[in-house]
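Q: Structure tokens for this one, please.
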Amino acid sequence: MMRPELKVLPNDQAFDVVVVGAGMVGASAAIGLAALGLKILVVEAFANPAFVADYSPSYDARSTALSWGARDILFQLGVWGDIQLQACPIRSVHVSEQGRFGVTRMEASEFDQEALGYVVPNQWLGQCLLSRLSADAVPFCAPAKITRIVPSEDFYTLHLNHDEPALKQVTTRLLVIADGTCSETAALMGIDYETERYGQHALIANVSTELPNLGLAFERFTKTGPIAMLPLTESTSSLVWTHNDADIQTYLGMNDAAFCQRLQHEFGDRLGQIVRCGKRGAYPLRLIRAKEQYRPGVLLLGNAAHSLHPVAGQGFNLALRGVAAFLEAIDDANSNRVQRQHTSIGSTEMLRRFCLARKRDQENSILFSDQLVKIFGSDSQLIGLARDAGLIGLNNMPAIKSLLARGAMGLAGRKAQFGGRRG
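A: Here is the predicted structure, written as tokens:
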């Protein structure tokens, strides 16, 4: 894996785009930008992990659910061929509520798809993306941080620091901020965030079950909070279990046997006995949105722009659709720069139009996740009956179920095309 040192980067070097953050969103954007022939630099605050030739995921490896639409985007980026080697297909989804009779089930075959989506270990997904950046010889500074951003009429001057005593500075026509929730880089520019706290934590772990999951993903709403069980291997599922803030330490502090027993009680026996639990972790759940997603020459992507509740598993998929649309906009601006100066890379008009075009998808995804939490979190008997009717009705109304499924699979709306490679 390539590890460029900041000290060998020429001072005052000019780039078309500087991408801040080499996580899954930043790396995806950088791969697409490199394929478009732009001169780019990636800046990452953490040390670049070494590439592991003989990859073997640990039992405790965290994972991400990719929609079919995300798979298409990663295929356009030329990385799906590697990612799929460790991807577990989601063949069907089972949605239910504890203590109620309403159930909805969706099968990939209903929609003429080989899978509704895939579950991929984060380490492998990240490694495939960074490996592509290395293969493309993209300049990559890690660990490094931007400490100062100085605007001028046509570009930004970025001051970077490293574990070396000397500072460096580079210039860029477009700064893409993708360094995560409540971005430090955005804060340098005075960009604020709106935050809504749900009073909940997501507990994450991998669990093994007596019966094979057969590619079946479960979303089960319980009184303690939603439980998502996503197929990771034949007999291992990735668990995301939402708990109130006041209860989370109780579940983290249980021994493995007690935790498996409690999960069994809430989840049921659909996969037989829960026989093993891996290392547990938790993080607070908040709806976070940047008050500004763009400025002249600046764009926020991924969690730096919006971070939503994981109940519908749409966070990274929404972000990746944003990356694809961004690459399409850049491709169009780059190819038409001579004819249409106002759409050049980093122009306010181009970024404004991009963000306006993304607004509906963002709002719909955020609203769906937010309302799902609130509707299934209500103790009202009347709302409970409405939930039952909704799940049963959805299961028996193919047209509506197809519409919902296509949205969840990332297939609603026009597919972005951005001059990528395929594979």
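A few notes: Residues 338-342, 382-396 have pLDDT under 50 and may be disordered. The domain at 63-121+199-285+376-408 is CATH 3.30.9.10 (D-Amino Acid Oxidase; Chain A, domain 2).
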